[in-house]
Write a structure and sequence with these properties.
Blueprint: H1 2-23, H2 32-36, H3 45-76, H4 83-94
Amino acid sequence: MAEVLIEIIHVIVALFMILVVLVQGGNEGGVGAAFGGGNSSGVFGATGATSILGKLTYGAAGIFMLTSITLTVLQGKGGDIGLKQRLKQQAGEQAPAPAAPAPTPVPAAK
């Protein structure tokens, strides 16, 4: 249940981060310039755009990284054995079977 909640938060934060990055004004003003016309500094004006959108981007990126790490850890807990044991098992399975002894020759009938 917790894993599903974290996945939902992860997707929402990813979509929010895409939106925030697109609205930010770059050299050409980003998507915000399309709404403002001649004002190429962004939707929120010359001073507020960088600080508000920058903080939103950093916050969303931080939450995205935390949810990514959490989902990875939760996914890794599914197995009962660690990597070393799994590699040893695979090496044992792939080892060639010992060669069977050569058959003894049967003497020819006279």
